[in-house]
Amino acid sequence: MILYEYPFNERIRTYLRLEHLFQRLAVLVPREHPDDHHFAIATLFEIMDVAARADLKSDVMKDLEKQRTALAGFRGNPAIAETVLDQVIAQLDGCFEALNTQPGKAGQALTDNEWLMGIRSRIGIPGGTCEFDLPGYFAWQHLEPERRQADLARWAQTFGATAESIHMLMKLLRDSGVPQKVMANNGQLQQTLPQGRTFQLLRLRIDPELHLVPEISGNRLMVSVRLMKHEPAERLHPSTDSVPLELTLCS
């Protein structure tokens, strides 16, 4: 099944983008080829751009505290394993403390690295990181893989507290949803959202054998899914198929 996720607000949209970039970085850093490490550095710069929002740190800390308060309310509930609950709350406390002691914005320490900022100023130019433009960077790419991996891990660690916090928040958010089977009739699905609840994330699973791509839109009242037919090397066009989907609403 292919999983598509749709955020209902800008805060979750930012979390999803950062989560995607952190996952990509985790894939690229352990590799050994210089090209992989070039794109790892490019990913670091993308993370810096997304994390540059002035309110990101405060938003994450507020969400951590909100989750902690909600989970603390389950203490004494016989249906809840106290040991597991204590572990999750301890993780939230650890994330909050790590962010609270982090000076400035996420990754701010990297802006003081003139060598990295020199690469950042050139990397958006097509072919702008060739050896005649950045000979020092070219020489770095010829270092042994272990040295490059150590440098990348050190730079990535400046985002460690943010990455761990967002991973924790998104896991708890996803766990809050209950999957349900729904039917998209004639390539369309519209569903009114329950009143009295504020949903933050929609998750939609589609069988890849159907060769369908969803166009999702939504607000606090309703979600709409329009299915598009996906043919290799062709533009998408509306589908009229009636197919089953798995829909999860997370709050």
Helix % is 40-55%
- Count the strands? 8
User: From the 3D coordinates, which CATH architecture of the largest domain would you assign?
Assistant: Orthogonal Bundle
Order of SSEs: EHHHHHHHHEEEEEEE
Number of domains: 2
Radius of gyration: 22 Å
What global shape is seen? globular
**Strand percent estimate:** 15-25%
Largest sheet: 4 strands, antiparallel
Low-confidence stretches: none
The strand line-up of the biggest sheet is 1-4-8-2
CATH topology annotation of the largest domain: YacF-like
CATH superfamily of the largest domain: YacF-like
Highest-level CATH class of the largest domain: Mainly Alpha
The number of distinct helices, counting runs of at least 4 residues, comes to: 8
**Class from secondary-structure proportions:** alpha+beta
